[in-house]
Amino acid sequence: MMYNLVICLIPAVLVLIGIRKLRVRSWGYCENAVSLNNKVAIVTGANSGIGYQIAKALALKDAHIILACRNIDMAKKTILKIEKQLKKSVKMTAMELDLACLKSVKQFAFNVQQLYPEIHLLINNAGVAYPKNQLHFTEDGFEIHFGVNHLGHFYLTNLLLGTLKKSSPSRIIVISSSLHEKGKIDVNNLEVNQQISSNFYANSKLANIYFCKELLKRTRNTGISIYAVCPGWVYTSLFRHSICWYHYILVAPIAYFFMRSPKQGSQTAIYCATEPALERQSGLLYRNCSQYISKVTFDDNVALKLWNESERLINEKMK
Questions:
Q1: CA-CA distance, 210 to 174, in Å (whole number)?
Q2: Neighbouring C-beta atoms of residue 146, cutoff 10 Å
Q3: 201 annotated active-site
Q4: Count of C-beta atoms within a 10 Å radius of residue 191
Q5: 47, 119, 132, 152 — which has fewest CB within 10 A?
Q6: Beta-carbon count within 10 A of 256 CB
Q7: What's residue 131's pLDDT?
Q8: Given its phi and psi angles, is residue 293 left (phi above 0), alpha (psi -120 to 50 degrees) or beta?
Q9: What's the Cα-to-Cα distance from 202 to each of 194, 196, 198, rounded to whole Å?
Q10: Using an 8 Å Cβ cutoff, are 119 and 42 in contact?
Q11: What does pTM read for this prediction?
Q12: Euclidean distance between CA atoms 217 and 251, whole angstroms
C-alpha cells in the first residue's frame, strides 16, 4: 500500500519541482563579467545573508570590500570564510558599524574615509525586523526599524556623499522590499508615528524608497547613480525575532515555491551594483534583475519632508 502511495505521489512531486524551477528562472541572475579591480565597495551587514553573498560576489569581481558590521569579530571570520570558499585571498577589510547608534555611524564614516580616499559603491543592506507587537529602540531613542533601516543608512550615506562624488562614477544601492507597498509615513508626526504603527518594518522600507527619490534629486549631474532594490522573500536571519519554530513547519510548503536562498536574493543588488547598462537608469526600483513598478503613488513632498525631518532628528541627537 505504501509503495502504491509513493508511486501516486511521484507525478505531483515532479510537477512541484518543475514549478519551482520556473520560478527560480523568473528571479533573474547577474551574469555580467564586469571587473571591479581598483574599486572600493562598502557593504553594510556583510557578515550574513544577502550582504554576505553580495560581498562574496564583489570579491569575485576583484573589488576591495569594506565589511561594515556591528560585530567586528564576525566580520573578520566572514573574510576567512569567503577566502576559503573562493580558494584565494580577497581584498576585504572588516570595520565596525552599529547603525543603531549615530555616533558609531559618524565614527565609521570618519574612519573609512581616512583609510580610503575613494569609495565607488555603497550598498545599504543591513536591516532589522521585530514582531509587530514588540517595541524596540535604538541607542538614540528611535524606534528600531526607523532608526536602523532608514535613519542609520540615511546618515551614513550623507556622511560619505562627498567622497562618492569625488569617486564618480559611483553607485548607491538601498535594499528595500516590496513590503514598502504596505507602509505608511506621516511626515507631520514622524516621532509619534515611530511608536504607533501596525507595521514598523514596512514603514521603514517605504522610507528607504522615499530616501532614494530625494537623494536622486540631490545628486543629479554628480556621477552618482541611485538604485532601490527588492530582493524578494529570502531565507535569512532577518526575521529571526519574528518567527517561531512552528512557523517554519506551517509555511514550509509555501516557502518552497516563493522563498529564495541568500544567493538568489542577492542577485538584483549585485546586478544594480555592477551592470554597465544601468548607468543612465538612476533612481528606479529593481526586482528580479529588472525594473519593478511599485503600487505606491510616490509624493515628492513626502520625500522632501522625510529628508528634512530625518536631518532635524539627527542634528538634535548629534549636538
A1: 11
A2: 26
A3: yes
A4: 13
A5: 132
A6: 13
A7: 85
A8: beta
A9: 12, 13, 9
A10: yes
A11: 0.88
A12: 41
Running along the chain, 319 residues long, what does each successive block of 10 average in pLDDT? Answer: 58 56 67 95 96 96 97 97 93 98 98 98 95 88 95 98 97 96 87 69 96 97 96 65 50 60 93 94 94 96 97 94
Catalytic residue among 155, 201, 271, 286: 201
20 Cβ contact partners less than 8 Å away, ≥ 6 residues apart: 256, 257
Residue 22: predicted pLDDT? 56
What cell does 318 get? 548629534
- Measure the CA–CA gap between 230 and 183, rounded to whole angstroms: 14
Instruction: Calculate ∠ Cα 81-88-172, nearest 5°.
Output: 70
Please give the single-letter amino acid code of residue 231: P
- Report yes or no: 40 and 61 within 8 Å, Cβ to Cβ: no
- CB-based burial, 283-304: b 16+ in 10 Å, e otherwise: ebbbbbbeeeebeeeeeeebbe
- Rounded to 5 degrees, φ, ψ at 281 are -115, 40
Query: What residues does 137 pair with on adjacent strands?
Result: 143
